[in-house]
Amino acid sequence: MYKAMQAVKTAAVRVVRAVRMRGMARGDAGMATAEYAMGLVAAVAFAVVLYKVVTSGAVSEELQSIVKRALDAQV
């Protein structure tokens, strides 16, 4: 569970940095506090959903299958 929380935190930090950089490039003063909070909540929610999907059994098996086929491919 700790790894999942670290992954979510890392994803949220990356999203916040990207938003800040975009605002700086536009010469924008930045988001208001409420917008900042909602953006952060949305980013964390998306990261949690993505983590759950990628670590689910079916997706994990499919990803392993793709990697095995790629490694066994004849050139």
Description:
With 75 residues, the protein is mainly α. The model has no long low-confidence stretch (mean pLDDT 80). It has three helices and no strands. It has helices at 2-26, 33-54, 57-72. 1% of the residues are buried. It starts with a helix and ends with a helix.
Number of strands: 0
User: What's the pLDDT, averaged over the residues?
Assistant: 80
Order of helix and strand elements from N to C terminus: HHH
> Nearest-angstrom radius of gyration?
18 Å
Largest sheet: none
Distinct helical segment count: 3
The unreliable regions are: none
Query: Which structural category do the helix and sheet elements fall into?
Result: mainly alpha
What would the principal axes of the Cα set say about the shape?
elongated
Helix content: over 70%
What is the percentage of strand-forming residues? under 5%
Could you list some keywords that capture this structure?
3 helices, single chain, mainly alpha, 0% strand
Topology summary:
Layout: H1 2-26, H2 33-54, H3 57-72
Helix pairs in contact: 1-2
How would you sum up this structure in a few lines?
With 75 residues, the chain is mostly helical.
